[in-house]
Design brief:
This protein is α/β, with parallel strands linked by helices. Helices cover about 25% and strands about 25% of the residues. The chain starts with a strand and ends in an 8-residue tail after the last strand.
């Protein structure tokens, strides 16, 4: 299962990301790093640095089938 976690670089959400990855789920994290830290993101998570309020960010990251990545990358 693929799970999208918004704000996943923040303290509480990053723990949820670790739990989901431990359960062998694919986890996609979107965070603008205003209050979160990239180091808190699980290394197996797919990470997008961006703001969900930014339409250009979402147009470049999301397509009808979901996010465009199967590896960790920072955009």
């Amino acid at each position: 299962m693929s799970i999208l976690v918004l704000g996943g670089a923040e303290y509480i959400a990053s723990h949820a990301v670790y739990q989901h990855i431990d359960q062998e789920n694919e986890v996609i994290v979107v965070d603008n790093l205003q209050t979160g830290h990239e180091e808190a993101v699980h290394p197996q998570a797919i990470f997008y640095k961006g703001d969900i309020r930014d339409k250009a960010f979402f147009k470049g990251s999301i397509h009808p089938q979901g996010f465009q990545s199967n590896k960790r990358e920072v955009k």
